[in-house]
Amino acid sequence: MTAGEAVPLPAIAVRDVTKLYRRWGRKRSFGTFKSALLSGRPGQALAPEGAVPALTDVSFDVGAGETVGIVGANGSGKSTLLKLLAGVLRPTSGTISVRGRLAALLELGAGFHPEISGRENVLINGLLLGLTRREIARRFDEIVSFAELEEFIDAPVKTYSSGMAVRLGFAIAAHSDPDVLLVDEVLAVGDEAFARRSLEKFSEFERAGKTLLFVSHDLGLVAERCRRALWIDQGRVAADGPSGETVALYRDSVSEREAERRGDTARPEPADAASDRIGSGAASVAAVRLLDSEGRPTVRVRSGEPARLAMDVRTPSPLQDFVFGFAVSTVAGAVVFGSNTTIDGLAPDELSGESKVVLEIASLDLAPGVYSVDAAVHARDGSPYDYRRDLLRFEVDGDRPIAGVWNPERRWTFSGGVRWKKPGKSA
């Protein structure tokens, strides 16, 4: 950005937001300000101990075009935050700013009149979201088709199942052409086909530069679909950063709390523990790193830039049969790239002592997101010496979304006690 150029305003700006709810209980003698005045003790109704903080001093920005996930335990304040952003609730203190047309799907059946038909609810909700009658009529068939409610659109909404109601609500919100879309656990109710259509719609929003903020307990989904995530813990922002890092922090916290609840003295095993590692031990993968173009370890790279995957290997006794391999997957488990030395035409001669293996990638052409690395050293028949899953996670930054199979140019380099047969020599 050049000097003097205006800094773009965020799509969502939250500043020092606190939300308090009244504490209700059998010991309260009154619950309203009017009853407090009549009691002659108005100050008691406003006492801090009479309120429960749902959110406390929450601040963050969301840039235009960002997809941000929100994670946290039940009751942590996630849904309250979305309601505040949608204008359903007002903050007790602090300010919230949302730029552009906003659509929100916050609760199952929220905004629907149960006694009237789905058709009439589409019209009413579309008008509330800022669409004209003509725009609603033009998009009506697409909304109904997306929700798969062609046979039920004229039935009262009270006869809909929970899945039907959430499909219709999401279809209306998604087809209202919002600049900002807020979604609270929409994928938890729908079936697999609806989940796929919803994720495709999320991708359309991303390509169109829309802003998406969604709450989900599906941590794999958040890590895969979001470049950034917020962890809300007891009404405060506990973490705000790359989704993979935020999800990992949240998972660690959940594991620690569960261990404390059970009275366990040992900490939970890390991701690279024995459960994610198989093999005979004839050779072992000691460490894996992602290196930038300067050879420096990193966990964040830009799409299209060169990168290197490096592993440190140890073997207690010399081996003549060995293969090194890497696999890169989405955090949901979909493999996007995998190769090994046999695939790339290298025939083993001897492996001994300590070695460093590097796979050079000329252009890391991955879509923006969080990815996981598996590393292995095994025999040519596939028998594992050491196979380690999810040993490293990294984030890819980029301006353009891509799709398809990743198949980059690559070259292997080695140091230490690794020798290969000359080309043309039999294996």
Give a nutshell description of this structure.
The chain has helices at residues 33-39, 42-45, 78-86, 118-128, 133-147, 162-174, 192-207, 219-225, 243-262, and strands at 12-22, 51-62, 67-71, 93-98, 102-105, 180-184, 211-215, 228-233, 236-242, 277-278, 284-291, 300-302, 307-319, 323-330, 335-340, 348-361, 369-378, 384-397, 410-420.
In sequence order, what are the helices and strands, one letter per element?
EHHEEHEEHHHEHEHEEHEEEEEEEEEE
Can you list the strand order of the major beta sheet?
5-6-7-3-8-9
What structural category arises from helix and sheet content? alpha/beta
What overall form do the CA principal axes indicate?
elongated
Spans of at least 5 consecutive residues with low confidence:
42-46, 265-275
> How far apart, in Å, are the first and last alpha carbons?
56 Å
The amount of beta strand, in percent, is 35-45%
Q: Summarize the main sheet.
A: 6 strands, mixed
